[in-house]
Amino acid sequence: MEEMFTIVNHPLVQHKLTLMRDKTCSTAHFRQLLREISLLLAYEVTRDLPLEETEVETPLEKMAAPILSGKKLCFVSILRAGNGLLEGMLDLIPSARVGHIGLYRDPQSLQAVEYYYKVPSDISERQAIVVDPMLATANSLSAAVSRLKKDAPRKIKVVCLLAAPEGVEAFQKAHPDVCVYTAALDRELNDHGYILPGLGDAGDRIFGTQ
């Protein structure tokens, strides 16, 4: 049975994450490390993709060999920081489709408000992997997954770089059926909703806007 919350503790993942946490890490290096770590996270989150057999002819003989079965994946990025995770994942699975969900937090109600939503028309035939670097309060992520569920993908998983205990608890309460994969579970959120010790604002560090 698949775990609902998985920390990917591969040594390369942990090493690259430590380099990304360093406040002196340049934008270019941060972006490159994120691309590398996202490829490794994609490897873990796709372990259960279904296979079927197909016939191929090697230079020596014909054989039955495994190949991915049916419609494959759709990576769904939560704008804008989710786009930083996409490149490495698409390096690994270039045939995957890509969707985007744009949300902002209303300053009065503090609720997530959708401003953009675009996914493949055949999303119901695909597994969706939602990507967002930070699982902090989980407000935006929970809202994004709720919106995605209306289009009924075959399965939904979430990949993030860092998670806070408060966010994990809130997300699992909202979506107990959705598996979460992360590189680390950090200590807590501060008063502004940032993960501690964290790595700062992921979007600003990816795009050099801090």
Provide tags for this entry.
210 residues, eight-stranded mixed β-sheet, globular
Write structural notes for this entry.
- It is a single chain.
- A hairpin with a 6-residue loop joins strand 5 and strand 6 (112-118).
- 34% of the residues are buried.
- Strands 1, 4, 5, 6, 7, 8, 9 and 10 form an 8-stranded mixed beta sheet that branches. A two-stranded antiparallel ribbon has the order 2-3. Strands 11-12 form a two-stranded antiparallel sheet.
- It is globular and about 65 Å long.
- It is α/β, with parallel strands linked by helices and 210 residues long.
- It has one domain (5-46, 73-207): 3-Layer(aba) Sandwich (Rossmann fold).
- The chain is 32% helix and 32% strand.
- Helix 1 runs antiparallel to helix 2 and helix 2 (27-45) packs across helix 3 (83-92).
- It contains 6 helices and 12 strands.
Question: Can you give me a brief rundown of this structure?
Answer:
With 210 residues, this protein is α/β, with parallel strands linked by helices. The protein is built from 6 helices and 12 strands.
